[in-house]
Amino acid sequence: MSGKTLARVIPFRPPPAPFSLEGFLRQVERRNFDRAVEILSEIFSLSENLALESLGRFLENSRMRPNLSLRLIELREALGESRIHDAMEILNEAFNIRGADALWVLQAYKQNLMKKTETQH
């Protein structure tokens, strides 16, 4: 080398917000299931029992679909772009939540996202 040091630039990525899908997936990766249930309960406005059932379905479904975590991250974008059918499909794939229940969860998730955005401004 000619005396110059090559600097490797690593882009800064903030840690996922604690109450987010990314935070949920991080807790699942760490096998911190109590925290994962707490996050699902908060972001989807579910009771703790329903959040626990949803976590169980996610774990089962993710064994059959290794890319399910990536698919789940698409939920926010689909909802933000008003692709309701896609968002409902993601909820079904990840948690087996369908129909009116899926619409209710999406509405709760969207309201929570809006609250989060409002508190950041």
Class from secondary-structure proportions: mainly alpha
Radius of gyration: 17 Å
Topology pattern, helix = H, strand = E = HHHHHH
Low-pLDDT sequence parts: 1-16
What summary fits the major beta sheet?
none
So how many helices?
6
Count of β-strands: 0
Whole-number mean pLDDT: 86
Shape designation: globular
Count of individual domains: 1
| Helix-residue proportion | over 70%
What portion of residues belong to β-strands?
under 5%
Q: How far apart lie the N and C ends?
A: 48 Å
What order do the helices and strands come in, and which of them pair?
Blueprint: H1 21-29, H2 33-44, H3 48-64, H4 68-80, H5 84-95, H6 99-120
Helix pairs in contact: 1-2, 2-3, 4-5, 5-6
Structure description:
The structure is a single chain. With 121 residues, the protein is mainly α. Helices cover 70% and strands 0% of the residues. It contains six helices and no strands. The relative contact order is 0.11.
Keywords:
121 residues; globular; disordered N terminus
Question: What's this, in brief?
Answer:
With 121 residues, the protein is an all-alpha fold. The protein is built from 6 helices and no strands.
